[in-house]
Amino acid sequence: MAGILSDLDDRCPLGFAIALHIRYNAPTFLFQTFPENWMEAYSRNGFVIRDPAVHWAFENTGFIRWRDLAVGDRSGVMEQARLYGLNYGFTVSIHNDRARSIAGFARSDRDFLDVEIDEIAQLFEELDVMTAGIEILSKKDTDALQKMSIRMTHR
Fold it and tell me: What InterPro entries does UniProt report for this protein, alphabetically (predicted)?
């Protein structure tokens, strides 16, 4: 698992947030590498309840580029994200009979190419399958995540 997260970290220069196996609005695992100041502002301002990417992910499956969500962003969450360098990104949503998993991936320099989105989405799907039914990560995975400075929340 740490290898996939490291690969995703390399492919997403401004970071990601991955929420796996969401049940009752809480993920079993949450991995985040977005800039700390953005995550603090996101939390402090309660953006999760107004974030068009989150809304889209709970209502759809597949992926959507953030630029395609900007029109319906009445609360200005996407505009605020750009102030922290999250200029380009996309959201992926997977839903199966057990739970939903969602993720957002970002960069500051350019939009993701279609092939990059496909590859990143595939890695995300592998993580979803790999963590299905797991409640606790191994010490090896936990240590590897800490070394990569990937913040993890576990329910």
Answer: TF_LuxR_autoind-bd_dom, TF_LuxR_autoind-bd_dom_sf
- Evaluate whether residue 116 is within a structural domain: yes
Q: Please count the structural domains in the chain.
A: 1
pTM, entire model:
0.88
Domain of residue 89, residue span: 2-141
Looking at residues 139-149, what average pLDDT do you find? 60
With 0-12 CB in 10 A as exposed, 13-18 as middle and 19+ as buried, what is 135? exposed
CA distance 116 to 87: 16
SS3 151: strand
The whole-angstrom separation of Cα 114 and Cα 65 is 10
Give the pLDDT score at 22: 92
